[in-house]
Amino acid sequence: MILNLFANSESSPQWREELCPEAIVLRGFAMPDGADLLAALQEITIQAPFRHMMTPGGFRMSVAMSNCGGYGWVSDHTGYRYDAIDPASGKTWPPMPAVFLRLARNAAMTAGFANFEPDACLINRYQPGARLSLHQDRNERSLDHPIVSVSLGLPAVFLFGGLRRNDQVLRVLLTHGDVVAWGGSARLRYHGVLPLKPGYHPLTTGHRINLTFRKAA
Ligand code: SIN
Ligand code: FE2
Fold first, then answer.
1. What is the whole-number distance in angstroms between the Cα of residue 133 and the centre of ligand 1?
2. Which of 30, 66, 123, 184 is least surrounded, with the fewest CB atoms within 10 Å of its CB?
């Protein structure tokens, strides 16, 4: 018997969900690369260990962060910025592994954003209770390139709002392998993550890992 998996959705397969124009969830897109991504991440965090950054307002972020690529996103008492140097080591960030770059390019293309060449990957590690409050990604020099976000390990509720902080917010459960890409008219939409629920995932044990790819410079 031949199954037509797309029987009821000829133009939009079930693994591709539109949150709004130019914001797309690709369900399970990173699943085949999950183990390779996490193995490469191990090497990165030997050189650039996870750390809890301070917000400009003096709060310690609950999400632990690292970076790879030419630029890394950093936060301290002076503000948010992209920096070619990891302030913890005084050295450049580890290079972006080939498996990261390939996935980010393919996901962007599949979501409708051609020629995405990320030069920064922020790596977020959530432990139970860790959250990310609603924010816009707006430290990048040009907003002409999308944000590509890859979820690994434990599931989390992603909040996806509008262009104003108080706009209505969608709640989207992101599980291992899901990718979200937003750009164009959706590029400055507010987004965040609800506090992580405790759980167990065979590849990340008690954590959720999120990779966000950006063109920073
Ligand atoms: C981010 O906005 O940098 C991360 C989003 C996520 O963890 O899903
Ligand atoms: Fe963000």
1. 10
2. 184
